[in-house]
Design brief:
The chain has 352 residues and is α/β, with parallel strands linked by helices. The protein contains eleven helices and twelve strands. β5, α6 and β6 form a beta-alpha-beta unit.
Length: 352
């Protein structure tokens, strides 16, 4: 394993505090800030490219596709996980059973629960795979839980869904960027870009298998979703894109100009290297917590939660250490820009 004493990504990051809060929002690399700033100035000065570049948006789509192991034709772009999940929810037939883990993130759950004509069922995360049955139309869940960092049993869920003919929706928001993802193994994956993918807010990603695409309604179809985009500015779109681009929202250009640069950095460093680095820091933190008499949630995720210790978040913030209080848990989340020294600093403050 590489040393945990040095961050990955070189001089791309410039935190002024001990920042262990990527599960809330990732730090932007310098190159990303430069790309967003450049586009903002071009817009302000009225240059020809000030509105944004679709070629740069295409770079972001292609980079994400490579990171998650699918072709670019399987990736749709949007602004949030809630919008992607809303499209999937509105495409489900009335009466369909949707299975969720208890306490999963609300943007995954709520688009389905507000329908009123779907059968929604909730079970503990550890029982998710065994709860999939012949009547389950879709199982929707996060690869890593936001509140406490628990990792789902991906292989068991995938096997159970396949055995019963259920479709799968995996939310990779808390995992894409540090945990290798093979998106083609799931009917749908969604990921908010502003956490471990290090993108500006306003960039999110949906992957759809070709088979699942056939039953997904492009409920926000618009001028950019046509097979030939530039002939669809007026009147109804003549033909929707044959690829997953039919499910795009119009791009937030500033977000995607930044996303293209952030995703390029992740590719340069390598997700496997990032996984080893992040998990190494998390393991060091868990061991230190146990030494102090605190028992973290058992997992090997980069997200570490300590039940009942959430109230310490404010005191840590006063010491220039940023973590989160989630569902009563003190939640620390480590990424490529963190180091062992930062882990030790948090432990020192908690011990004081």
């Amino acid at each position: 394993m590489e040393s945990l004493d040095q961050p990955l990504g070189g001089a791309e990051f410039a935190p002024t505090k001990t920042y262990l809060n990527t599960s809330a929002c990732g730090l932007l690399p310098r190159r990303t800030v430069e790309a967003v700033t450049l586009l903002a100035w071009e817009t302000a000065e009225g240059r020809p490219d000030g509105a944004g570049s679709f070629s740069v948006v295409a770079e972001a789509r292609a980079a994400y596709a490579r990171l998650v192991g699918v072709g670019t034709d399987r990736v749709a772009l949007g602004t949030s996980v809630g919008v992607h999940c809303g499209m999937i929810a509105q495409s489900m037939p009335a009466g369909a059973e949707i299975l969720f883990p208890e306490g999963d993130f609300s943007s995954v759950l709520t688009p389905f629960t507000i329908r009123g004509d779907l059968k929604t069922r909730f079970v503990p995360l550890e029982r998710l795979a065994e709860s999939i049955g012949p009547g389950t139309a879709l199982v929707a869940f996060s690869a890593v839980q936001s509140a406490d960092g628990r990792t789902a049993d991906l292989a068991a869920i995938r096997a159970a869904a396949a055995a019963h003919g259920a479709r799968t929706l995996l939310d990779a928001t808390q995992s894409a960027g540090w945990l290798p993802l093979r998106a083609g193994e799931w009917d749908y994956t969604v990921a908010g870009g502003y956490k471990y993918l290090l993108c500006p807010r306003g960039a999110s990603f949906l992957t759809v298998t070709e088979e699942a695409q056939d039953s997904l309604l492009p409920i926000h179809a618009n001028w950019v979703t046509g097979e030939e985009m530039w002939v669809n500015s007026y009147g109804p779109v003549r033909e929707l894109a044959r690829s997953a681009r039919r499910f795009d929202e119009p791009p937030v250009f500033h977000a995607y100009h930044g996303a293209a640069r952030s995703l390029a950095l992740l590719e340069e460093v390598g997700i496997e290297r990032i996984e080893a680095h992040d998990k190494g820091l998390a393991a060091r933190f868990r061991a230190g917590l146990r030494t102090l008499g605190h028992e973290p949630v058992a997992d090997d995720s980069t997200v570490v939660a300590v039940p009942g210790l959430g109230h310490r978040a404010d005191a840590l913030r006063a010491a220039d250490i940023l973590l989160s209080d989630r569902a009563g848990n003190l939640r620390a989340s480590f990424h490529l820009y963190n180091t062992a020294a930062e882990v030790d600093r948090v432990l020192d403050v908690l011990a004081g």
